[in-house]
Amino acid sequence: IVLGIEVWTITTLALPFLVDVLLTLVWRARHNRPWLQPHRDHAYQQLIDTGWTHIDVALTYWGLTMVCVWMGILAAKAGGAVPFIVFWALAMAGSALWISERRTHRA
What we know:
The chain is built from five helices and no strands. The chain is mostly helical. The chain starts with 6 loop residues before the first helix and ends with a helix. The longest helix has 25 residues, at 54-78. Helix content is 74%, strand content 0%. The protein has helices at 7-13, 15-30, 43-49, 54-78, 82-105. It has one domain (7-105). The chain is globular and about 40 Å long.
């Protein structure tokens, strides 16, 4: 608990970015690519490379972040195990979106 807020709630707020960073690192490791070398493997970069505008990508990330914020707030108010459950449910949903994007736009 940080400042009276559960770690799960705080982490939920950043999930769109955390999912992208962590899954990109896993993907790069599985494909034997150096972690610290500059690349364009993040989901937002892939979307731009496939024709999305910067505005479309920014609004999509903003929307996903807002969903996480609202779910995090509702989960925090519910208390108990709810923040933990909401975090993992959103993390799995985000992972499914990331994998779907990767399969659709990248060989």
